[in-house]
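Researcher: Next entry in the queue.
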Amino acid sequence: MSPTHESGGIIPHMHPDFFTRRKALSAAAALLAVALGAGTVVPAFASTQLTGAGSSFDYPLFSKAFYEYSQQHSDVTVNYQSIGSGGGIQQFTTKTVDFGASDVPLNTEEYKRAEQAGGKVLQIPIALGGVAVTYNVPGIGRGLRLSGPVVVAIYLGKIVKWNDGAIAKLNPSLKLPDAQIIVVHRSDGSGTSYIFTDYLSSVSPEWKSKVGVGKSVQWPAQNSVGGKGNEGVSGQVRETPGSIGYVELAYALQNNMMYAQLENAARKFISPTVESVRAAAATKPGVNPSDFSIVNRPGAGSYPIAGYSWVMVFAKPSDAARAKLIKDVLEWTATKGQSIAASLDYVPLPANVQQEAKRVLGQMQF
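Model: Structure for this entry, 366 residues:
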């Protein structure tokens, strides 16, 4: 039964030391760093290479998790393309990859297209993280506070200067510059955009009616620029004074970016952290492909922009041996592999969600 709700480069296995670097790397630069970096360990040639594509939200976690899996299982490697959720859904539907990844489950039409291509589709929660509102404001370090309505007004193009009264009211101790705000958003079909616009819609009826929720929307602010993938948005914000953007929490923390404290549903200003995302997820212990949103959740410690990411596989792939490998890799990633999550600034999946992932993967036939 289908649910009822609603592109990066090819990166092989990145050495874990990559994730201690604080400088943002493009996909191509990361590949070069891995290929040429001193002391890099490259897995031996494997008999089977699985392929996946999609969410850039998942990319740091998948890179390290799949590397670790290949170290323990030398017969298989996983090549994951960080091309955005929309691209991942497209490649999965055309059966050019073994699995797709998206920060939002398939909508009804997407599910129907995939089902027509390969039969029943299984959707498995695989990662949990936050979306940080990042900024590059000359003279302003950490500590900027923003409310939901102010973020909405910025992305609607109604607040255009950093010293606007609405921002100044939230930050009386900061000397905000008389500088234009440059809005950075995703240019590709993005699950991170879905989570972000889901949040904006939850705090603003105007945003919900004029723009809405989606992986791709018409961004209304005139002074704006797009970036491809979380990598692209991170790079735009880092390189553009006066900019504001939204990226998966791991990108913000690993690249030492400035991020705002956001006012949550309890009217508390909360920083995006592993702990505050975990608190948001704890308020909704049961998630599934038709009921998954965890934005703007109650609780004094809840960070308001958080979400799960999902992988999609066909329940009965044509190659039985390959299907078993897919199941084994994804089950390990959703359970034992979650021990890697916290080191990369993701939240390990709650135990009950891990069990749900195992249950769904148990429906694969091979």
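Model: Residues 1-44 have pLDDT under 50 and may be disordered.
Researcher: Noted, moving on.
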